[in-house]
Write a structure and sequence with these properties.
Blueprint (H helix, E strand, L loop, with lengths): L10 H13 L2 H8 L3 H15 L4 E3 L4 E3 L1 H27 L4 E6 L1 H11 L1 H6 L4 E6 L13 E6 L9 E13 H9 L15 E5 L11 H7 L9 E5 L2 H9 L4 E5 L4 H5 L3 E2 L8 E11 L7 H20 L8
Parallel strand pairs: 3-4, 3-5, 7-8, 7-9
Antiparallel strand pairs: 1-2, 5-11, 6-9, 6-10, 6-11
Helix pairs in contact: 1-2, 1-3, 1-4, 2-3
Length: 322
Amino acid sequence: MSAGSKRPLSLGNLRAFEAVARHLSFNAAADELHVTQSAVSRQIKSLEDELGAPLFQRGTRHVHLAPDGALLLRAVEPWLAKLDGAVRQVRRARTRPRIGVTTFASFGSLWLLPRIEAFQKHNPEIDIRVATSDALLDLDDPELDLALRNCLPQQAGDGAVRLFGETVTPVISRGYAERVARGDAPPLASIPDLARHAFIEQADDAPMAANLNWGHWLAGQRHAELQPRSWMVLDYTHQQVQAVLAGQGVALGRLALIVEELARGELVEPFGDAGRICTPYAYWMVAHRGALERPEVAAFAARVEAEAALTRAAVGGEGRPC
């Protein structure tokens, strides 16, 4: 290996490479980077010389990634994304304070967003970004400060703060309950009565889904063989809640996410506390290393913990097993 081959690669050359690889066009990359096509060509040639390998297969009217180019792109794309994210964070830190939160979509829409209105009202100078993903993302994105997760304790991560447990319970809408009471819908006084109703189920391949489905709940109630009148299968928890509110059947509600709807009487537990079961999962808050040293993140985290305490109280207090 020559002495020159040990030098760090030029950031400008790497940006040019990533742009060409993304567009598969030297002209389009030049337009994006606001330079000439010949300048991009020189940067790619310089990078290939430094690496000692061709990065593109060039034709008369087309450009394709060479095998070594594909290998380099897999490393460069996430690296540049993190670099750009860090730069944006540094620039914003010199202007407006900002908080980045990651959580899964249903938790964000059903629990988090309704509860941060007061925080935003009292802290209008702080910008909040909520990114949703059903995957357990690592907090290695410089734009993320907090992760709100639903997982097993061993998956929560170092320093995780437990917010509340996961309890599921059958729920119907107020209108549906009124129809049952009038006799316009089949009775729903005991578990065998469920066979005359439609089940709203979550279609989810995540490991936690096994604890949220009807099969698990019915087995725990010693009615594993029971089948409903019909099924409605939806992708997300918030879709289930919408379907229940529309009076389309009975769903297993995630209690912590629907406490407000239950308190307002919009949703009803036909079996009361007897229908509630705990799962081994819980909701956690995890902070990026050093994030809580920033006053805006510490204040937001404190607000989340305060709201979590209210949720714990609403679902039965600290004495419940969940």
